[in-house]
Amino acid sequence: MSTFQTRIASSKDIDAIASLFDAYRQFYQQPSDLPLATRFIRDRIVKEESVIILAENADHVALGFCQMYPSFCSVEAVPIYTLYDLFVQPETRRTGAAKALLLAAERHAIRHGVTRMDLTTAKTNIAGQALYQSLGWIQDELFFAYSKHLPA
Question: For position 95, which CATH number holds?
Fold first, then answer.
């Protein structure tokens, strides 16, 4: 088991997170584009549009991250977080880093009055599904998810 810590990322972490974010995008079959990843992460942090939690080792090397976007549930009339991104370096997987990131995200959400967190994952992400379920996440059986790409 590796030793690592989690913390809320700040503007000083943009480059480290951008590198992880670029790898995350590649995992989802997107071409590597570090300038795009850097701009995207910088905008989220500077504009305070998301919460990014970073996992790092004892030497402060970034191992993984998760990113949550604040939103609302109209039906329940409460604030929620959408946990959109969760990525751990391949060599760091199965060390508990992803679990630590999810638990840190949950603690942060509770501290900020968020009453629900949502996430989606690929149907083929069996390891992720097992982790989510082990931490009490419940798979939605009532709703279908839809998306539509719009012209730029």
Answer: 3.40.630.30
pLDDT in tens, the chain (152 residues): 568 899 999 999 999 999 999 999 999 999 999 999 999 999 999 999 999 999 999 899 999 999 999 999 999 999 999 999 999 999 988 889 999 999 999 999 999 999 999 999 989 989 999 999 999 999 999 988 889 999 98
| Helix, strand, or coil (residue 78) | strand
Residue 115: CA count within 13 A, CB half-sphere:
8
pTM of the model: 0.93
Containing domain of residue 130, as a range? 4-134
